[in-house]
Amino acid sequence: MHNPYQSPTSSATEVIQPPIKRPLSVWLLLLVLGVMIIALAIGSARSIWFMAAYPDVMPPRVVVNTALFLALVLFGAAALVGIARRRQWGRWLGLLVMVALTAAMFLMPDTTHYDNAAQRSGGLFGRTILMPSLMLLWAYRFGFSRKAKRYFAD
Hints:
Elements: H1 24-53, H2 60-84, H3 88-107, H4 117-143, H5 146-151
Helix pairs in contact: 1-2, 1-4, 2-3, 3-4
């Protein structure tokens, strides 16, 4: 593209584009990841504090769960940094987080008490059709839309 206002002695050959703004889907995932990382980090710190206070009566399961929580905190932090810095691997980690959240919706038991069959069918519709559809739309807009591809292009 020729710039008529460019100096003929200038070495710049391209017009510099302004940086691409973050899409809304990226902002939402950064917010969700940030809240999840803070919650998991607080839970891990409490478990470590509990293990330090009572080291003699600590079952191995608590140690394994704490290690798992710390691994999730590190994974989430890596995804958060990768997304914020516009890295391709951050895009794929973000999509992996979205898949994990969608799978968790299906795997977690529904403990809600419904008063009648209409409420129960509405809850089932929301849990099995509506929420996964919204997560699929969010994942598409985060990882595969035109804005997202431009955002993660560099």
